[in-house]
Amino acid sequence: LTDLYFPDFGLPTKPGYTNLIAIIVSFVYVFFILRQFNTYTLRTKIIIAFIIITIIPLIALGYFNSSSSTRALQTQSSIQLSTLANVVANSVDEFITVQLNAVLSDAKQSSLSAYLKLPPQSRSGSEEETNARIALLSLTRKDPVFIHSIAILNANGVNVLDTFEEHQGQNESKFAYFTRPMQNGLPYASNIIFRDNEENIYFSSPIKAQNGDTIGVLRVEYHATVMQSIIRSINPGSAGTLISLVDTNTYVRVAYTGSERDELFKSYKNFTDVELVILQAENRLPAGPK
Question: How far apart are CA 166 and CA 196, in angstroms?
Answer without folding.
Answer: 12
